[in-house]
Amino acid sequence: MLAVAAAFSAQRCKPSGPEQALTGDAASKVYVAPGKYDEFYNVVSGGFNGQIGIYGLPSGRLFKIIPVFSTFPENGYGYSEESKPMLNTSHGFVPWDDLHHIALSTTQGEHDGRWAFANGNNTPRVARIDLRTFKTAEILELPNSGGNHSSPFITENTEYVVAGTRFSVPMGDNTDVPISSYKKNFRGTVSFIKVDTSGRMNIAFQLVTPGVNFDLARAGKGPSHGWFFFSCYNTEQAYTLLEVNASQKDKDFIMAVNWKKAEEYLKAGKGKTVKAEYAHNTLDESTHTATSEILREVLQLDPLELKDIIYFIPCPKSPHGCDVDPTGEYIIGSGKLAALIPVFSFAKVQEAIAKQDFEGDFAGIPVIKYESALYGEVQKPGLGPLHTEFDGKGNAYTSMFVSSEIVKWNIKDLAVIDRVPTYYSIGHLSVPGGPTRKPHGKYVVAYNKITKDRYLPTGPELTQSAQLYDISGEKMKLILDFPTTGEPHYAEAIPAGLITPRSVKIFKLEENKHPYAALGEAKTKVERKGNEVHVYMTAIRSHLTPDNIEGIKQGDDVYFHVTNLEQDWDVPHGFAVKGALNAEILIMPGETQTLKWKADKVGIFPYYCTDFCSALHQEMQGYARVSAPGNNVPLKYSTGKIEDQTSGAAQ
Amino acid sequence: MKKVIPVLVVSLLAAACAPDKPKQQEKDAYDSYETAEPLKNDHDGKGIGQVKDVTLNTPLEQERVGRGKAIYEMKCSACHQLTDQRVVGPGWKDVTTRRKPEWIMNMVTNVDVMLDQDAEAQKLLELCLTRMPNQNVSIGDARDILEFMRQNDGEK
User: Where is the Cytochrome c domain (chain B) (predicted)?
Assistant: First the structure.
């Protein structure tokens, strides 16, 4: 038996060659046995659900949904008093956004497993997720932006996260201008957000650019570290029917930014402080509470006055992806309306700039000659190239939206090696470590826009379809379909070993500094402050303390501050109260969370634990009594106290 | 021996072929309570765990008593009374005369293994029907709790 098992496992691990192109062994390649772990975390944007999904690769199993720019009644994010400030903006509380792209933090161009960044497209924001807790730890709003699409791409050592606006907009004191004055009044911005060693973000500077649309971006690495590349479209500067009017020119641009140069100008005091209004929201892990601060200023650099910061490189045609290969030398533009893929050479770009090899300027910014920046073109790769990633072996993988396929090609000789269909209409793709200096390779995942017939039908709306391909051999092989939530745009995958050792299991009670924490049942109490009633409650298997509360008056705002006294992994408690207008809350071990409840009616209101915690979970409950304002019931609370039945009757 | 063979097969498969649980996890001290294979020594009444021998001093170490009381209030009092009344868990009155000090400290610091393997702990689970939670108590903290229990039992 032993020998048979060993032989079987040896066969399973043979590198797959073309002879195995039939997918007979696909199941074993994606099979993760019960109790075993996946090899990679796949951190997947949720698009219009405003969330991030955490999947395992190669199994495609969904482990967690992280609410980022959306409220989440499942755990109280955006409903609990502690988390509400996280969704504050200059417009007030904005409970939804459109989350498109993921950037995992890197050190020296390689994944380090500290944070994931994500963009909010609609009300421009950037979020940071702590990968020890898988919680949204920080959200920074972006002023002078009209849709934060070209974001959150990061520099090699996570020095900066960038945020380029999709829509150019008028900015400054007078923004009430005719839409038709686009050319005169509308400007783009690219914000460089500094990230300190604790992860905390602040806008170091904004570059003000001519009015265009920014789409995607990538930082340089290795030799090109210090530069950033942004794809631009609508260089026609159209403001209506962009479908036609922004697709007129043969070439749009890739904007090359020398951010080290920008830093020099900044240091020399060339930045201009302008008025702005934007929210900066941070989670304090010791109080389990987010706070929101409105900032009033931002520093801008004007590349029209400050030369040598930005250059345009012509790129056919409405480029989406703008991807830098692992060596840092090649920049691949994916013009979504183009029939070829241009590959630019960083060395040639530098040479062209040094020689001022320009074909002219665009709104005052030098435009480098296409041929002078070009390394070469991939001819007839397919239709609608969108986005490219790399396997670290000299190959590139480009998604083709219109022809629904992934095309593998060699960067050096620009020859197409292989192509596989996707089901259907692929958007972004992701190779584990694909945007880093050291891709982990092994797989490429297609995040498709159209699902159609891939799964059991569920009415007009279908789950989104992702496909996993084995890229360990010469030929790509489809090995798994897996459904994803929301509408994934970009995703990254990271080896599990970079995350699991630092994953937080509990919050230590000793470190809980929440002002309303009850660190032990002896600390539970109920306090009245005018019309507010604060309940300092504890939860432990399997009772809530206090579980009898009287003396609440109709019209009171009752704050249930629930501290979970457990110190064991995976024992959250939940809390829900009848008639709550918001949600439930889930409280992690050692954490304190608050649910605000309006006592709007007279009567007895049950509350209970919503997260199954023990054999006596169904006993984990309590009663709150709400009395009419004129009824003089004293405030009292208890657990386990049995009163004489007759004494309560009259009150 | 019958039991050993499937284990071997599984581990061979795992060694031969990723994906597997990341190796770091086994080295992570945080996880030791889940993965450690404790020695069975539940015949001497000391329970199962790292605590083999505890020296008790008289008079009581008052600093420990104070710290132990604070930990009790934060992590234990929700389920344990200081009287002999059982609520979720047994009352603590006279626990230091019923149990050896090592058993108490092992129960507090190694509760999952104790509930799975120690006969006395299992009897308590049958009685209370709620698994005592792992409250992430260190050995030092458990020693402080023990001192507080001794005081609660009338020792000076």
Answer: 63-153
